[in-house]
Structures are given as structure tokens and as C-alpha cells.
Amino acid sequence: MENLTPKEIVAHLDNYVIGQDDAKRTIAVALRNRYRRMQLDHEMQQDVTPKNILMIGSTGVGKTEIARRLAKMMNLPFIKVEASKYTEVGFVGRDVESMIRDLAATAMTIVRESENEKNAEKIENYIENKIIEKLLPPLPAGASEQKQAEYDASFARMQEKFAKGELDHLKIKVTMPNNPQMPEEGLPPQMIQVQESIVKVLGGMGKKGPEKEVTVKEARKILAQEASETLLDEEQLKELALEKVEKGGIVFLDEVDKIAVPSNSQGRQDPSKEGVQRDLLPIVEGSTVATKLGQVKTDHILFIAAGAFHLSKPSDLIPELQGRFPLRVELNSLNEEALYRILTEPKHSLVKQYQALMAVEGVELEFEESALHAIAHYSLMANEKTEDIGARRLHTVMEKIIEEISFTADEHSGEKVVIDRLLVKDKIGQVVEDEDTTRYIL
């Protein structure tokens, strides 16, 4: 995945995001440049910094989806934060560095899952042996060869039963994982460090949790965590996660337009907005943040900022922050044709989702072509008459149309239900035509 060309990255994104070719190309090149940078000598690598991206476009046009899909495709740590929330909590609540700590936690989860997958057989063997040892009477020390052979034969028989799930109903005692309560979100960094120190002391410094009697089926899940902690090197996992977050982390800063101070505000400047920008600046420029993985350098983390910029413009951000987002890309608003394509073309489009959900109840759901065009048409009308929420409007409109069928699905098992243009018009036509009703219902 790391070696994908920009064309291959865009082709993958085309399965999930309709249109917005300029944004896809820009972000694909930014990701490819990461791979290119890693092929350079160490000294040159330090000077090649990521070209952060500023996405400009209304809500619901695909800004977040492009970044999220890309991170998922390449198995990279990704986190989305709203820049505006830091103005709400000011300097007393969560500090801006918390986004890097959250990103580090995401990287650790990705690495642990990956290593668990690589060691799946070892983990499964560990779980199997632990459970069978608890079910069989222990073999006395210095047992004869005959006793050892009998024990081994019993163990082999239990292994067969375990594999078939025949032992799942039996009960055994297992030691529960010791998960001390972690520090609360929303505390200043100094308080978090103090709480973490207390947790380490009071949490027992690696003490085991209490014993509990559970079924073998439940024990499998509980012992999976124990197996992972026993078989995997925790320090090595931290090193891998640290490397992953520093070289591949993506931070998506949404609503960045809401921390801009419009030039026409006539002296009514909000100091908290500019304060958040100045707090963000060192992290985007490159600084070191203390996390549970250790010190994370943010120099090569990719930052993607996004905003609608209806009431402000990118030039209203402080110059230093503007300079840290050299790549600008404007996303197009969605017209009727784009909404229709979003309904039908993506790999897991809304139409396919509803058809799959109804198939669970034995209902075959069919959408006539004219109905799909009507849904796109009414969604566009609703966006024009009220707040433009882009493709998210499709969710509201579709839910309104399918609501009755979904509620009575059990009565139509084995039947085929056709959604035609008349049904769409009946369900939402009048709602959309009345602007006041649209505001409350759609």
C-alpha cells in the first residue's frame, strides 16, 4: 500500500467519493511524496517537510471522507478534530497537544491489531493451552511415563473438542485483566501526568485483576488480551507505533474557518480564536509532544485543514499559519447529477446499504431510475431552500422514504418492494416545497 502511485490512490478513492478530482489528486500526491521522502538519505529526509493541505468547501461535499478513506486504505493513524472546540474550552480545558496524544493512541491500536494478526496462531495456541490446562486435572510432578502419555492423550482429545466448540459451555476460572481507570479527558497536561502517576501506583504496577468464573466461550475473549500482552513485546509495539505516527500520521483539522478572524469584523476580534491559531502553530510547524508512546515529533505528520469559509477567507488566518498550509484545494458544491451519482455509484452506496438492510428481513428492495433522480432532485431543493449540508441530505431524504417500509418489513418478507417516482413525491415532495416544513423535517 505504501508504494501506490497517485493514479492508484485516486482510483481507490473513486470507489467511495464521487467527483472532487482536484482534492483527490492533491492528497494523493501528498501521500506519494511521503513514500518518496523515505527513499532519500537521512540528511535530506529531515529537510523535506510534508506539504500540508487546506481544503475549502461546504459541509457534506467529501472533505473528511477523502482523508478518512485514504488513511484507512493505507492503514495510517488518522484523527479528526474540530478546531473550533478549542475556542469553546479556552486554555483551561483540553489543550491542542491532546490531538497528538489521541493520534498516538490510534497508532498503538493499529500496530497492536497488526501484530496480533501476524501472531494469530501463537495467540490461539496460548488460549487453547490455558483453557485445557484449567479443565484437566494437573499432572503431578515426577509423574511416570505412562501417566504422562495418558495426560497427553487426554490433552489431544480436549484439543479436538475445543476446536469443534464442544467445550464452550463449560465453566472455568480466569484472571480478569487489570484495567485501572485512566485520566479523564479535558484536563490540562500537567494534571493528566499527575493522574497517570497515581494510576501507576494505585493500579498495582502490573498487578493482575480478580479471578472470575466464566464459560470457555467468554474465556477465549478474556485470554486473548492476556495472550497478546504475554507474547508481544510491549516496548517494541511502542517503538513501531511511534514510528508509524511520526512518519504516517494524519491530523484532519475541521472547521478551521471558525478560528479565523474576518477582516471586516471592525475591531470586534475574538482573542480566543487567534489564541487557538497560535497554539496550533508550533504543532503544525513541528514540535515535540509527550505521549504514552514517548516523545512524538510532529515535523512529518500531515495536517489537512478544512472549512467552508463562508463568513471568512483563508487570508483571515494569521500569516504564520497560512504559510504552513501551502496546498490549497477548493471542493465543488454538489449539483443534482453529483447527488444522483453519490446515491448509486460508490462501493457501498446508500441504495446498496438499504437494499442489504431490507434483505435481512427477506424484502427485495428495488429503486426505479426515475425514483433515484427524484431523490437527488428533492435533496438539492432542500439544500437550496435551507442550510446546504451536501450529500448528508441524502441520508435524511432516504430515511424519510424508507421509514414506513422499514417499520413494516416483517409483514413483507419474501416480497419485492419497488420505490418509484410517485412514492418519492408522495413522501417528500410537499415537505420540500414548503420551506418551513423542510427546515424541521429534512
From TrEMBL:
GO terms for cellular component: HslUV protease complex. The keyword Chaperone applies. InterPro entries: AAA+_ATPase (IPR003593), ATP-dep_Clp_protease_ClpX (IPR050052), ATPase_AAA_core (IPR003959), Clp_ATPase_C (IPR019489), HslU (IPR004491), P-loop_NTPase (IPR027417). Belongs to the ClpX chaperone family. HslU subfamily. Keywords: ATP-binding, Chaperone, Hydrolase, Nucleotide-binding, Protease. GO terms for biological process: proteolysis involved in protein catabolic process. It comes from Sulfurovum lithotrophicum. Residues 334-430 form the Clp ATPase C-terminal domain. Pfam families: AAA (PF00004), AAA_2 (PF07724). GO terms for molecular function: ATP binding; ATP hydrolysis activity; peptidase activity. This is ATP-dependent protease.
